[in-house]
Amino acid sequence: MKINTRPLLLLFVFIAFANSGCKKSTLIGNDLLPSSDDLNGIFTDTLTLKTKTVTEFPLKTSTNSKFLLGTIDDPVFGKSTASIYSQFQIGGQVDLGSPDSLFIDSLVLNLQYTGHYGNFDQPANISVFQLTQDINADSAYYSDRNFRHYLHAVGQKINFIPNFESPLYVGGDTIAPSLRIRLSDRLGQDLLNQSKGTNFASNAAFQSFFKGLLIETDSNITGKGIMYFNMTSSTSVSKLTVYYHKPDVDSLKYDFIIGTDCSVFNHYTHNYISTEIQTTLQSTSQSDSIVYVQSMSGLKTKITIPNLKNLGNILVNKAELEVTVPSWKIDPDSIFTSPSRMLCLLADSIGKNAIIPDQISSNLIYGGFKETAYLNGQKVYKYKFSLTEHIQDLVSGSVTDYGLFLLTYPSPEIADRIILAGGNRSDDLRMKINLIYTKLP
User: Fold this and answer.
1) 371-375, strands of its sheet edge to edge
2) What SS3 state is found at 7?
3) Confidence category of residue 11, pLDDT binned at 50, 70, 90
4) Is 393 strand, coil or helix?
């Protein structure tokens, strides 16, 4: 079992300085010290940080709380696309009547908006395809996963610009702002024809018969926005509805819901050809002055601290990573806005993300929220992260140092990106660690 020696070290240092008649520190950076750590700590912000942009591993998207759809053509980050795979479910045996008495009026896919990124002054084309490959509702699916589907779309929305604000009025009901796509009448009639049959006998039989849908946008059309959808919460109105009639009854409907026995997940693609991202990724430099972070399993920034051990045997009073968005990297048109929050995580031995102890510590404020600041009269954004426990672990040698990662939050289910000043700089924008420490015997 790992024993946390930091409280004992603090007590030792406090006693040592009390016996020597220490007085209040007036060193630069004293304002960073907690009030209880008045121990004449040494402040530095000159630790060397090596910073590089790297590609992200595929991230799990089957546990998302929202799901993304759209295409973004970004002058810096190239083209990114988000598509959705979704199952649907029934509650048990479905009896709509005798199949030969059921007649299709329409089949409509409804997806409830829950936000967006970018802007939508350019129309999009959306296509829906029926899957031919089984999805397992109990499996984890990642952002690089594809499933087979029929080549011909069962529904399309052409030259479409979303309205995220206005509610819809459907059949006398008012529902939340949504994307509605009419699907093939042939598919709708095929579903009606399963009434009272084996394919409608159970949810497992239904999902084996109707494996689900792929929803995607036409990536050949220039786009500037990604739509977010609420599809899996208990309050969502996202569903597949068949509207039908019988010879003697009109205006009937049946909902195939997206419930707890369904899998929904995102697939993401990124194309960096002929962009500054491609140049950065191909660079052989050990540290860059500008680095990049992108959601949707795109990019992250790796940080290493090569000379930390040169500080010797120390007690870390406070360590704070500070990163800055330069004024000239803030999007003036507010199309590609900076994320409201970022994460700083550990890198593991194969370059994947791991939890940093400061993130779950009850004694620290982890941070990572966007702050507005001014440097030399210019507006910049800053993000600050507590690294106190992690840096103490590094200098004490209790963990292996594989570096740190900067990510957007929550990276699998948002579409934003950010450009940061790296560690290979000599100006006030330089990425740095504000460190206060005490030398130990």
Assistant:
1) 42-44, 432-439, 314-325, 378-386, 371-375
2) helix
3) very low
4) helix
Token couple for 58: 């595929």
CB atoms closer than 10 angstroms to residue 199: 19
Q: Which of 404, 135, 441 is nearest to 291 (CA)?
A: 404
Ranges of each domain in the chain: 6-57+281-439, 67-262
| Chain position carrying tokens 């697939």 | 267
Specify the residue for token string 């952002």: 143
Q: Are 309 and 396 in contact (CB under 8 A)?
A: no
Does residue 46 register a pLDDT over 60?
yes
User: Greatest CA span in the chain, whole angstroms?
Assistant: 97
CB 39 within 8 A of CB 17: yes
Among residues 130, 129, 289, 293, the alpha carbon closest in space to that of 209 is found at 130
Residue in 268, 136, 158, 264 with CA at minimum distance from that of residue 207: 136
Say whether the peptide bond before residue 332 is cis (omega within 30 degrees of 0): no
- pTM: predicted TM-score of the whole model, two decimal places: 0.89
- Average of pLDDT values for 154-174? 94
CA distance 410 to 357: 18
Q: Kindly state the tokens that stand for 150.
A: 């029929």
Question: Cβ neighbours of residue 411 under 8 Å, at least 6 residues apart?
Answer: 56, 59, 295, 296, 297, 300, 343
Compute CA distances 264 → 59, 61, 65, 226, 241, whole Å. Answer: 14, 8, 10, 17, 17
| DSSP of 72-138 | EEETTTEEEEEEEEE--B-SS----S-GGG-EEEEEEEEEEEEEEEE---S-EEEEEEEB-S---TT
Which two tokens mark 360?
């779950």
Alpha carbon distance 83, 214 (integer Å): 7
pLDDT digits (tens, 9 = 90+) for 345-397: 999 999 999 999 998 876 668 899 999 999 999 999 999 999 999 999 999 99
Single-letter code of the amino acid located at 241: T
Residue 373 and residue 325: Cα distance in Å, rounded?
10
**Which residues partner with 107 through β-bridges?**
183, 242
Residue 84 in tokens? 């959705």
Residue 410's Cβ-count burial label (10 Å; 0-12, 13-18, 19+) is middle
